[in-house]
Specification:
The complex is a heterodimer. By secondary structure, chain A is an all-alpha fold. Chain A has a domain of 304 residues. Helix content of chain A is 71%, strand content 2%. Chain A is built from 35 helices and two strands. Chain A has a two-stranded antiparallel ribbon. In chain A, a hairpin with a 4-residue loop joins strand 1 and strand 2. The C terminus of chain A is likely disordered. Chain B is mainly alpha-helical. Chain B has one domain. In chain B, helix 2 runs parallel beside helix 5. The model of chain B has no long low-confidence stretch (mean pLDDT 84). Classes of the chains: A mainly alpha, B mainly alpha. Chains A and B meet through helix 29, helix 33 and helix 34 of A and helix 2, helix 4 and helix 5 of B.
């Protein structure tokens, strides 16, 4: 157990205290207690910065299931540290913000903060795990906590819909990723990410390499809302705004980016990886920006904007992976800039987008609506919020003097450099990247301006607003103010960030490039008149024109037909799978117990007899058997007579009694074979069963002869006789096959080993105590099951089917 | 309805104690002789069931004010927790141990941890069997 393990588990353990504290101190706003967790974590991770900046890594492991190579292994390098600081830093600000955003009286805060802390722990687990399976576990845990947080206001239909949608899509991708992980494990023979990276060259030619690559990317794309899986993110905006700021812009949606970055040293340099990551990314960037302009709801606009920005970072990771094509050298180092920019923009995006979400939350809080059509003229009423909105959205648009400008310019540089590649058929298609990047950026500029000026400038429409607009309380403003100061600080001191965080992360992602000149570029705000600056100028001019002329060109959105949209496809798929599974289930769940018995015994018959015959296990060996005595013959005759007579009885009482004859005869068998224990048990069990039967008489319907239709009776006969014959065959074969050494020595030594002369009980209580313990648990579960079935049955009609 | 219960009730009053004693005997003798937690538990529960058959549910419940669901749960807990005791001594989960002691009156006696485990089994059996039977009969 190292410090890192504790840091991951801290938020999850804190959940227990939050819940208890909610009970003990109902007057305290739980946010204050929850705030302690991310702040402590953030401080802890800050202390690790010097170690990591010195190109060191921290790792530790706790063995879990060694046979399966499952270890709770953690690994902290520059990449993980950036994410860990984002998770805890933005986490602190979001929790602080939420204290003023969520009302103590109306909301169930202990739920909210439990889910939020659960998410925080899970997300830290994702970025710090070194074991594929543990990574997957935390990965799905983030999906689950996201589901809970989106559905926080669970009575709203839209929250339910959004929560379900995000869950289905992200978990679906997660399962694909799990399969990819298993393939990686099969190829490399280890679950450790770092070991897999070290084995890169030996697994590259494996036939599972490309399938694993695609499956893992499916996980990353669904989580990071890349086209066409982006449809869940706008619906996830039903979550409370602090959650949107935290999960759906700053952290969880970046898990996909983290995964891509983490696996770049494994898959980078592969053409499929390059084209999928950069192609999907750049298209998502354009698509998201295009649709963001159209949105009427501020949060929906931010959702599409997030999709677009995630696409931008994704495409950069894709472009940068080309550096690994043909190995690390001074020639290919120029392409690594893309990865550097990706990391830089990832940090920048978290600052300005987190601030923007909080600002939208403030507007929503103060005005009562987020609809652009109703908003306007808030500039003078909310001056601080307006200033913050200008800073953060100008940064998003890529304007100086904000950090977004730096990374946007470098993004253009990266696309221009990529254009020059002479492999991956980039000489034909390379031009596509700068062009789409430019187009996407124009729309980015447009929606950034729409966001600020439609909300804060223009005509003030008091009659359309629910509340009297007023400046937000200071508590709500602190967090966006801190983020906006970062936006400016990062513009002034980008190279400090680069030195302490980005450079070690680069070394983590591209270990082979370590030490090569040019891996860590210097960031300049001013780099002369060049193509990038020209591109920014085009963005500003065109974007400005588009904003002014929006009402003339907005018809182009009608060109995208509603009926064949991706969203519609998702809903059709959902409806189709529901109706199909419904009809399949209805086909065999008839409500008749006899049908269910039919399935169960039919299945057993096929599987067991199939195994017996296919493996040729039917061996009947009577050599070791004892002599058959006269009492045994008599007992068997009695039992056979009783069993056959049951078929011809006229009353249920007789049938029960005959069944009892079978049971008691078995007890006598045990006596004959000198097993008094078993005989005693059998007798008592038989007695209790008879009492049960007597009780059940009341509930059973009239004893009626079934219809004599052969179509019904013959299958039943086949099953009944088949099961009987099969049981006999299995018992005889079990006697005939000696696959294992006899364990009778345990029984003979029971007095020495367990101190008991009763070998049956020594087995039950000592040698096989685990079995007995589980049997007791099963018995208990069965008892609880009977109890609930009887006590909690539906008041009407629920059990009529079973009685037919 | 109840005119013929006199003989049954009279016999039961005596028989119940015989069955209970026998059940306890079976439980305790299980280590060396036929018996044990499961069979002991079943016998004990059959005594309780006999009471329920001979008398009505209400009066038995008044006489034995025990929630048998809790008895079952306690039994399962004892079984599982008795296994964790071994962990404290560095042994594997559910390891049992035994030793011989000189006790006053009884002389040299074997004491073993398996009794705790079997006690859990017995309680679980009593609890579950009685719970099931009572509930099915109350459902009438």
């Amino acid at each position: 157990m190292t410090l890192l393990h504790l840091l991951i588990l801290f938020p999850i353990i804190a959940v227990v205290f939050i819940v208890t504290l909610g009970q003990l101190a109902p007057r305290l706003h739980l946010g204050w207690a929850a705030l302690v967790v991310p702040v402590v974590l953030f401080a802890a991770f800050l202390t690790m910065v010097p170690t990591i900046a010195g190109n060191d890594t921290i790792s530790g492991t706790i063995p879990w299931i060694t046979e399966l190579d499952l270890h709770f292994a953690v690994y902290l390098d520059g990449l993980s540290l950036i994410f860990a600081l984002l998770i805890t830093g933005v986490g602190s600000l979001v929790v602080l913000y939420s204290i003023f955003y969520l009302s103590k009286k109306r909301e169930s805060l202990s739920h909210f903060y439990s889910f939020l802390l659960l998410f925080m722990g899970a997300m830290l687990g994702v970025v710090l795990s070194d074991n594929l399976m543990v990574l997957y576990l935390f990965w799905e845990l983030t999906s689950i906590s996201s589901f809970l947080l989106i559905g926080f206001w669970y009575r709203r239909k839209k929250s339910q819909y959004g929560a379900q949608k995000s869950f289905l899509i992200t978990v679906g991708g997660g399962i694909a990723m799990l399969v990819g992980f298993i393939m990686l494990q099969v190829m490399s023979g280890t679950n450790s990410v770092q070991e897999i990276i070290a084995m890169r060259n030996s697994i590259q030619g494996h036939e599972l390499f490309v399938p694993a690559l695609i499956l893992i990317l499916l996980g990353a794309f669904t989580k990071s809302a890349q086209f066409p899986f982006h449809i869940w993110l706008p619906d996830a905006m039903e979550a409370p705004t602090p959650v949107s700021a935290y999960l759906h812009s700053a952290t969880m949606v970046k898990a996909g980016l983290f995964l891509v970055a983490r696996f770049t040293p494994v898959f980078g340099g592969e053409a499929t990886w390059f084209w999928l990551v950069s192609g999907v990314g750049i298209f998502t960037m354009f698509w998201g920006a295009l649709f963001a302009v159209k949105q009427k709801d501020l949060k929906a606009l931010l959702a599409y904007s997030t999709i677009s920005q995630l696409g931008l970072i994704m495409s950069l990771f894709g472009l940068g992976s080309a550096a690994l094509h043909g190995g690390a050298s001074t020639d290919s180092v120029v392409y690594t800039t893309a990865i550097f920019v990706a990391l830089f923009h990832l940090v920048n995006h978290s600052t300005f987008k987190g601030a923007l979400f909080m600002i939208v939350g403030i507007v929503d809080h103060g005005v009562g609506t987020r609809d652009i059509r109703k908003l306007g003229g808030l500039m003078t009423l909310m001056p601080v919020t307006f200033t913050l909105a200008v800073i953060s959205s100008f940064s998003m648009a890529g304007l100086p003097p904000f950090n977004g400008f730096l990374s946007k310019e470098m993004f253009f540089t990266a696309t221009l450099t990529a254009k020059e590649m002479n492999f991956f058929s980039m000489d034909t298609w390379g031009m596509m990247f700068p062009v789409i990047a430019l187009a996407g950026s124009v729309f980015t500029f447009t929606y950034s301006m729409v966001l600020v000026f439609k909300t804060f400038a223009g005509r003030y429409k008091r009659d359309k607003l629910e509340k009297n607009p007023h400046e937000a309380p200071i508590g709500l403003l602190i967090s966006p103010i801190i983020l906006c100061s970062l936006v400016i600080l990062l513009f002034i001191f980008p190279n400090q960030l680069s030195k302490y965080l980005l450079a070690p992360a680069m070394n983590g992602i591209l270990p082979t490039f370590q030490g090569i000149e040019g891996l860590i570029p210097k960031i300049y705000a001013w780099h002369g008149f060049n193509t990038e600056l020209l591109m920014t100028a085009i963005v500003v001019v065109l974007g400005f024109v588009l904003v002014r002329t929006f009402k003339y060109w907005k018809e182009i959105y009608d060109l995208f037909p509603q009926r064949i949209s991706i969203d519609q496809g998702y809903q059709n798929l959902l409806a189709f799978s529901e109706s199909t599974s419904n009809s399949i289930t209805n086909f065999y769940m008839t409500g008749f117990l006899r049908h269910y018995l039919f399935y169960i015994y039919g299945f057993l018959l096929i599987v067991l007899s199939g195994t017996l015959f296919l493996t040729g296990s039917i061996v009947i060996n009577t050599a070791d058997d004892a002599q058959i005595g006269i009492y045994e013959v008599l007992l068997v005759l009695i039992m056979a007579t009783a069993a056959v007579s049951i078929l011809f009885t006229k009353s249920r009482m007789t049938a029960t009694l005959l069944n009892g004859v079978l049971g008691y005869s078995i007890a006598i068998f045990f006596v004959l074979f000198r097993a008094p224990d078993l005989a005693l048990t059998q007798l008592v069990v038989e007695t209790v069963t008879t009492v049960l039967f007597l009780l059940c008489f009341y509930h059973l319907p009239e004893w009626s002869k079934e219809d004599r239709n052969l179509k019904v009776r013959i299958p039943k006969m086949v099953i009944a006789i088949g099961m009987g014959v099969l049981t006999v065959l299995i018992s005889l074969s079990a006697q005939g096959n000696k696959l294992f050494d006899s364990i009778s020595s345990f029984f003979e030594d029971s007095y020495e080993l367990a101190g008991g002369r009763n070998i049956v009980n020594s087995i039950l209580g000592d040698f096989r105590a685990f079995d007995t313990m589980l049997e007791v648990v099963v018995l208990f579960i069965a008892g609880v099951g009977v109890y609930t079935l009887i006590k909690l049955k539906s008041p009407q009609g629920g059990d009529t089917n079973e009685r037919k | 309805m109840r005119e013929n219960d006199v003989i049954l009730q009279t016999v039961s009053k005596v028989a119940v104690f015989i069955i209970l004693t026998f059940g306890m005997y079976l439980f305790l003798s299980g280590h060396h002789n036929p018996g044990g937690g499961f069979i002991g538990g079943l016998t004990l529960s059959s005594a309780v069931i006999l009471l329920y058959i001979a008398f009505d549910v209400e009066s038995v419940n008044k006489g034995i004010p025990v929630d048998f669901k809790l008895v079952a749960a306690a039994g399962v807990l004892i079984s599982v927790l008795s296994g964790t005791g071994a962990l404290l001594f560095g042994a594997d989960f559910l390891s049992q141990s035994f030793a011989y002691f000189d006790l006053p009156l009884l002389g040299k006696t074997e004491l073993t941890t398996v009794v705790l485990f079997e006690a859990g089994v017995a309680l679980a059996v009593v609890g579950v069997v009685v719970t099931i039977l009572i509930n099915i009969s109350e459902d009438v």
